[in-house]
Design a protein that fits this description.
The protein is mainly beta. About 10% of the residues lie in helices and about 35% in strands. A hairpin with a 2-residue loop joins strand 17 and strand 18.
């Protein structure tokens, strides 16, 4: 059998002591076959931790951010609005109710004065300016940011969402003009809905702060492999007491509609012209918040166009009469009054979209068709639009088309396939 030999170092004066453990059970130490160094426990633990961190970072590479438009650079619908819903920054929406004066949402251009986020490469934020809520904070009042995430994007993310030792990590930058604590939450939609509430901690007024939350899986989570709503992300500026109450933070629990987050401080909501802005929203696989995944504008726009696309140029009001519409070809399929026009969407949409049609000179209405050397209004109807293209049935006033002839048409559209 092989022998074990301990050889002293010629120039060393220290004594190597091998101490047996206090045990009545035999212990076996297996030495390596080739020359090697046996690291200390502390060194081994440190190496393991470093390896795990690097593994997490490597696994998070590539298309790692599940959130779309997390840096707020795409705003197809417009850049400022006092309305609720999806009005400015793509893929995000404002849910608000109970205000005496509307909250203004906007795509906000950052500057070098926004030191913390500017240095990280962010150039836009999703920005909110509170109105003057003279009636105070009502029980049903709310000001909440949402992004809805497809179930298949979670199911195929690599997250073992039924294991408490598997994580996704949410991170974002936030700034408030009012110093207070805010809440956020995740809400799973498939199976029995589960909620995960968290807090930002008390923010310093007018200071960008990075929030990071490592979120474990849970045995009660379900995410179907389909295009429907699977997970909702919410960031709350305010929520009234009809949907708040005593609850645990940083844990998955069965969704209770009347208790979504703890009772909220009303300071921000009752401060006239208080501001709140957010950028750099990232949801990724693993327990480590890695650097934000900056994607090109073109790539981010294409991801957004899966859910919403428009024929209007970016930044152009949909009531702007200076933009007379997209000109396309149509074929009369009868000698009487009907014709069809089809146009491909920039990308395949999530599902067959709902359409809003605008006239040649904008304003909600109908396409126009060019006949007898003049633009003529039509009665416009959806004619089998699907995920890939828009198809319209046009019936011009007064008829007068020639079957099988080609005609020019002009108008605009919005196509909405949001969750």
């Amino acid at each position: 059998m092989a022998k074990v030999k301990i050889t002293g170092h010629a120039s060393g004066s220290g004594v190597l002591t091998v101490t047996a453990p206090n045990t009545s059970t035999d212990r076996t130490i297996t030495l390596p076959d080739a020359t090697a160094t046996i690291a200390t426990t502390a060194a081994t633990d440190a190496l393991t931790a470093t390896t795990n961190t690097l593994t997490t970072r490597v696994n998070a590479g590539g298309r790692k951010n599940i959130i779309i438009n997390g840096d707020m650079q795409v705003a197809q619908r417009g850049t400022s609005s006092t309305a609720t819903g999806r009005k400015t920054v793509d893929r995000f929406l404002l849910s608000a109710a109970g205000q005496d004066e509307a909250v203004t949402q906007s795509q906000h251009a950052l500057t070098s004065g926004d030191t913390e986020v500017w240095a990280k490469g962010f150039r836009n934020s999703y920005h909110f300016t509170n109105g003057n809520q003279t009636s105070g904070a009502g029980a049903a009042d709310r000001v909440v940011i949402h992004q809805y995430i497809e179930s298949q994007d979670i199911a195929n993310s690599g997250w073992n969402y039924n294991s408490s030792s598997s994580y996704i990590t949410l991170s974002f930058w936030v700034k408030s003009s009012v110093a207070q604590n805010f809440y956020g939450r995740l809400h799973s939609q498939d199976g029995t809905g589960q909620g995960y509430a968290f807090e930002t901690g008390s923010l310093t007024a007018n200071t960008w702060t990075k929030i990071t939350k490592a979120i474990p899986g849970h045995s009660n989570l379900t995410f179907d492999n389909d295009i429907n709503l699977g997970l909702t992300l919410e960031i709350l500026m305010f929520r009234g007491t009809d949907k708040t109450g005593s609850m645990s933070l940083d844990s998955w629990d069965a969704f209770v509609s009347g208790t979504r987050v703890p009772d909220m401080t009303t300071t921000w909501y009752t401060t006239n012209d208080a501001t709140f802005e957010i950028t750099g929203v990232q949801l990724e696989l693993g327990s480590v918040a890695t650097d934000f995944e900056h994607r090109s504008y073109g790539e981010e726009l294409a991801l957004c166009q899966r859910y919403y696309t428009t024929s209007f140029n970016t930044g152009v009001s949909h009531a702007d009469n200076a933009h007379e519409g997209v000109v396309s070809a149509a074929i009369a399929y009868s000698a009487a009054t009907a014709t069809i026009t089809s146009m491909a969407f920039p990308v395949k949409m999530r599902t067959s979209p709902s359409l809003t049609i605008y006239g040649r000179n904008a304003g909600t209405g109908n396409y126009a068709i060019y006949k007898s050397q003049t633009w003529t209004a039509t009665t416009t109807a959806n004619n089998g639009t699907n995920e890939s293209f828009i198809s319209l049935y046009l019936q011009p006033a007064g008829g007068g088309l020639t079957a099988h002839y080609s005609y020019q048409t002009s108008g605009h559209y919005d196509a909405d396939a949001e969750i």
